[in-house]
Every structure is written in C-alpha cells, then in structure tokens.
Specification:
By secondary structure, the chain is of the alpha+beta class. It has one domain: Aminohydrolase, N-terminal nucleophile (Ntn) domain (Glutamine Phosphoribosylpyrophosphate, subunit 1, domain 1, 4-Layer Sandwich), CATH 3.60.20.10. Helix 1 runs antiparallel to helix 2. It is globular and about 50 Å long.
Length: 271
C-alpha cells in the first residue's frame, strides 16, 4: 500500500531521514512505485514537490533529503496506484487554496465506491485527476468551505468537527488512512492497512513524540535537524521509521496536531 509521513514541530526543522525510509519501502519487494510527493509548509503556503515515478533511488528524493527547506509542517506520500493512472495529476499530496491558505491532503486506502456516495459529494470542487483519493479531498473541502467563508479563520473545534464527520463518512467505504493540513493544524486519521497476507487490519498509522530542551548536547534528534533551542515534534508514519517506541493508532483514531503538540484526540470506539 501507499506510505504516509507527516511532521509537525514547534520550530521549523529539516526532515533528514523520512523520505529515504519511505523510498526504501517503495523499493525492493515493495509495490509502491507509482509516484511520490512532499509538501513543506512556509506559513500558510507550501512548497509542493511531486513526481509520478518511483521514489526509490530517485535523485530528486536524494536532493530533498539533503537540501529540503526547514518547515514546521511537512506531509509526504509514496504512491501505489490502485485507482487512477500513473500521472502527475494523480500524485499526492493534493493541494487547493481555501480561505487564504493552502490545504493539502494525502491518502492511503481504497475508496472505489466514493464516487457514488451522496454524503461525499463535491459541491463546487472538481478533481484534476481520476483517483478516489483526490475525490475524497475535494469532498472534504466541500464540507469545509462554509467554515472558511467569513473574514476570520474558523475555530479549531469547528475544523475538527468537520474532519471527524468526514472520516466517519469515509471509513465505511474501505481502509482510509489520511493526512490533512491547513497550514496551521495537521489532522491524521488512522484506520486499517493491507498486510502481506492480504488482510486489512489496524494499525494504519503510527505516532512518535520527541522533545529537545535545548541543553548542550541535546540539540540533535535522529532523523530531524533542529537548532539548539527547545523543540517539540510529532512524527506520524504508516510504519515506524526508527527503533523508538512509536505508538500505533487505533482503528478509527483521529488526531489534530499543532506545532508539535496534540490538540484534540478521538479514540476509536471499543466494541
């Protein structure tokens, strides 16, 4: 399946390991070889780099790992095409402007029946490509659009409520892990993930929190380049990228993160 990665940090930081690790997942015996993309936020705008070919041993990926810009919010995706052809328009992360900022979205799952779902209709939004993932993003933006029609940004609670309702609509269609960012908040929804034996089971995402107090000798965090200042980071990925204690998401778990701290959290319902 596709690979997802996101970083949210209190201060801008440079990701130095994640793309390489995601690219490794896309090479060898991994089937995820149909495209890659990364969004580096700079305030409410973002540098978006995408390419509809394999990330594994890709010179552009190597360049980004060595020279990628510092950012407080990063989204990345490695694609395994299931719906939609192998082309730029179908390569994640997808991006649209709304409410004076850039919104981005990356998805890992299978929602082939989404095109028939009235609750996930597009409103005025239209996809550029032909994937279920971009359709899902346009449906999310259609639901968010009324919140952003005023002169001031909507509250965090209002944004979270819309994303939670969207996740509830998307999850019954099929495995639905996604990352969504609006330049201020990062939303991460964990569902199920396809295993090598063909089963779809949780976890679909994992999370790791890191903190650096800025003391001498404590300015390096493995995989992320930081300044010698107090720093807080949240890392989210499809699979753990280091041997640290990544916490798996429960099936149906939604997090809202801002500047390296979890702001809101919905745990999955236990039956």
């Amino acid at each position: 399946m596709c690979e997802l990665f996101a970083m949210s940090s209190r201060l801008p930081a440079r990701v130095t390991f994640s793309l390489e690790m995601l690219a490794r997942h896309a090479g060898g015996d991994r089937p995820s070889c149909d495209g890659w993309g990364v969004a580096f936020y700079d305030g409410l705008d973002a540098r978006l780099l995408r390419e509809p070919r394999a990330a594994y041993q890709n010179p552009w990926v190597d360049f980004i790992e060595k020279h990628g810009p510092p950012s407080h919010l990063v989204l990345s995706h490695i694609r395994h095409a299931t719906t939609g052809s192998k082309r730029l328009a179908n390569t994640h992360p997808f991006a649209r402007a709304l409410g004076g900022r850039l919104h981005t979205f990356a998805h890992n799952g299978n929602a082939k029946d989404i095109f028939k779902r009235e609750e996930l209709s597009l409103g005025r939004r239209r996809p550029i490509g032909d994937t279920d993932s971009e359709w899902a993003f346009c449906a999310l933006l259609a639901h968010l659009e009324p919140l952003w029609s005023g002169d001031t940004p909507p509250s965090a609670d209002a944004r979270y409520g819309v994303v939670a309702a969207f996740a509830d609509d998307l999850q019954p269609i099929g495995p639905a892990n996604f990352l969504y960012a609006d330049g201020e908040y990062l939303f991460a929804f964990g569902d199920r993930r396809r295993r090598r034996d063909g089963r779809f089971v949780a976890p679909g995402l994992h999370i790791l929190s890191r903190h650096c107090d800025g003391a001498a000798g404590d300015s390096e965090i493995h995989g992320v380049s930081v300044e010698s200042q107090a720093q807080s980071l949240i890392l989210i990925a499809s699979v753990p990228l280091t041997d640290e204690a990544w916490r798996p998401f429960g099936e149906g778990e939604l997090l809202m993160v801002r500047r390296g701290e979890v702001i809101e959290h919905i745990s999955p319902v236990k039956c």
